Amino acid sequence: MQSKANQRIELQSAGKTLADEKTEAQARLAAIVDSSSDAIISKDLDSVITTWNAAAEQMFGYKADEAIGQSVLMLIPQHLHDEEHEIIERIRNGERIGSFETVRLRKDGTTIHVSLTISPIKTADGRIIGASKIARDITATRENERRIRLLLREVNHRVKNQYAVILAMVKETSRRAQSPEEFERHVRDRIAALSRSHDLLVLSDWSGASIAELVQEHLKPFGHEERIKVSGSLLTLNARSVQYLGMALHELGTNSAKYGALACSRGSIEVTWKVATDASGISVLQLCWEERFAGEPAACHQSNPRGFGSIVLLRAAPQALDGSAEIDRGTGHVRWHLTAPVDSVTVVRDNEEEPALSQQVFDAVRLVRSPALRDNTIRRPRSGGAVAPVGSLMANRAK
To answer: What interhelical angle do 211-219 and 180-203 show, nearest 10?
Structure first.
C-alpha cells in the first residue's frame, strides 16, 4: 500500500503532465494560427476584434495593434453591414457558418473577394463568448474565372465568325470552279490560309500580330523569298484585321504565283506600309502590294469584279478594316493599295452583338456598307521600320 507521501507525489506529477500538455497544445495552436496563410481573426459578440494573425495583417493592411479593439465593421463595406449583424445572431445561437464568398475592405480602401468560415468560441462550460473567423483571399481566383468566361465567349464568337467565313468562301468558290477538283483545291488552299492567320493569333493569345509576321506567314508557301521585300513601321493588327488581311495576302500571292511576278523568272514583289494622316486629320494605315514582272498580266490575272479574289481585295478586307482599296493591273505590274483608319486595324473590338461581317461583304449583289463596329481600346503604333527580304525574316524567326 502506497504511503500518502507517494500518492501526493504521483498526483503532483500527473498535474504537471496535464498542465504541460495543455501548454504544448496551446503553443501548437498559436503556431498554426500565426503561420497560416489565411487570415484568422477572433471577435467578441459586440463584433470587436480580439485577435489578429500575421496573415490578417498582410491581407487587410492593418497591424495587430491597429485592429485589435476595433469593430470588425471597419473591414466590411457599408452596404454589407447587415451581413455582420446576421452573422452575430447566428453565432449567438451556436451556429457554425460554413464557407461563403463576400467582399471586404483593405486599409487603403480597396476591396478584395474573400471566402469566410465562422465558428462560435465557447468557454469550458459551453458559454458562447465570441466567434473565430477564417478569411481566404479569392480575388485572384475570381479574376481568373472572369477571364476564363470572357475567353470562352471570345472563342465562341470567333468560331462562329470563322464558320461564317468558311461557308461564304465555299459558296463563292463553288460559283467559279470549273471542276470538282478545282473547287477542292481552291477551298483547301483558302482554308489553309485562314489556318495560318489563326496560328499567328493563337501564338499571341489572340492579341494580334504584326504586319511583317502576317506577310511572312502567307507568302512563305509560295517560295522565292529572295524576291519578296517588306518595309514598314512596327504595327500590331487586331485579330479581325489579321484574318481578313491574311485572306487578301493569300489571294494576291496565289495570283502572283500563277500569273504574275512569282510566275516569272525575274519578277519581284514589294509590300510596304506606313501610318499617315488623311485630309480630315485621322491616322490611317496605308498598305501597298506591288509586283513587277515582264510583259502583260495573263488573261486570268485581269480584273474580274465578280471574282472571289476581287471580292476579297476590294470588298471583304477593306470593309472589315473600315477602309477602302483599289487595284491596278497593267503592263509589267500589279498594284493593290489599301487605306484604313489605324484605330480600326489596331483596336480590340466588341463584336458580340454584330452579325458576322462575312455574311455582308461576300454577297456579290449587296452594295450596302456594313454597319460601323464599336471600338474599345487602342494599341498605339510604334514608329520605325526597315526594309528586309521575307527570307531573312523567316531565318530570324527560326532562331
So the answer is: 150
